[in-house]
Amino acid sequence: MFTTMFDTGLYGRLRQQAGSHWQNYVAHPFIQQLAVGTLDESAFRRYLTQDYLFLIHFARAWALLVYKMRTLPDIRAAAASLEAIVSELPLHISYCADWGLSEAEMAAQPEAMETINYTRYVLDIGQSGDALDLLVALMPCVAGYAEIGLRLLDDPATAMVGNPYARWIANYGDSDYLTGVQSALDLLERTGQQRGAESRFGSLSTIFTTATQLEAAFWQMGLNAPVKP
Q1: Are the beta carbons of 13 and 201 closer than 8 angstroms?
Q2: Which of 13, 37, 54, 156 is least enclosed by beta carbons within 10 angstroms?
Q3: Helix, coil or strand: residue 46
Q4: Does pLDDT of 35 surpass 70?
Q5: Cβ distance 48 to 99 under 8 Å?
């Protein structure tokens, strides 16, 4: 299944080093409830709104990564990921509209503290560190969502019929999405080899694990949304 894709190379080592924090992220109660269709719709709408705000900063972080790359092939690879995010935003907005959320409404919402904490952490890593630091901070989101999608699709307990969240689940197991994730993993591996990842593994692990914890907090933010009667 996803084992080969996520268990090897620098990413696999960082993921393993994150330990229980990684499991808290990819198997969070938000995800468990979403998988069986019991997640409260208020929680999901809260998540969708904040995810829209998050993606704007995520695109900024990838744009910063493009700037920090030194070779044309790596600039192209980072730019392709940036373009994928920017191109996907209209689809995200369309999906949110199906849940009664307009772009204007989402844009007008204040950022949750969890959104601020996560996005500003990634941008700060990008500003203060090099391309490898920034790429490591981005990877829990990029590859983590793919792992979550594939886990859920592979789990017979996941409800794909009559589940209002089935389309969301299917999106993160989509072949086009997984191709983009593999490209990001390849870029991480190349950048790690170019920029001495082995000698920096301790600090890179701290960045990766911190971003993982912030991902779990983002799920919890959604789960903590007030339930509407």
Answers
A1: yes
A2: 156
A3: helix
A4: yes
A5: yes
**Cα-Cα end-to-end distance for the chain:** 40
Task: Give, in degrees to the nearest 5, the angle at Cα 170 between 36 and 9.
Answer: 105
Alpha carbons within 13 angstroms on the beta-carbon side of residue 146 total: 22
Residue that is written with structure tokens 């409260």 in the block: 40
pTM (two decimals): 0.94
pLDDT (average), residues 7-33: 97
Sequence-ordered list of residues with C-beta below 8 angstroms from that of 99, at least 6 positions apart, any chain: 41, 44, 45, 48
Q: Which of 210, 211, 178, 169 is nearest to 4 (CA)?
A: 178
Amino acid 161: pLDDT: 95
Residue 7: its H or E element: helix 3-7
CB atoms within 10 A of CB 9: 17
The structure tokens 């229980």 sit at: 20
Q: At 212, is the secondary structure helix, strand, or coil?
A: helix
Q: What is the pLDDT of residue 90?
A: 86
pLDDT of residue 2: 52
* pLDDT at residue 3 is higher than 60: no
The rounded distance, in Å, linking the Cα atoms of 29 and 65 is 32
Q: Counting beta carbons within 10 angstroms of the beta carbon of residue 202, is it exposed (0 to 12), middle (13 to 18) or buried (19 or more)? A: exposed
- CA dist., res. 32 & res. 35, Å (int): 5
Q: What domains, with CATH codes, occur in the chain?
A: 41-220 (1.20.910.10)
- Residue with the bigger pLDDT between 206 and 172: it is 206
Q: Is the pLDDT of residue 229 over 60?
A: no
Q: How many CA atoms lie within 13 A of 187 on its CB side?
A: 32
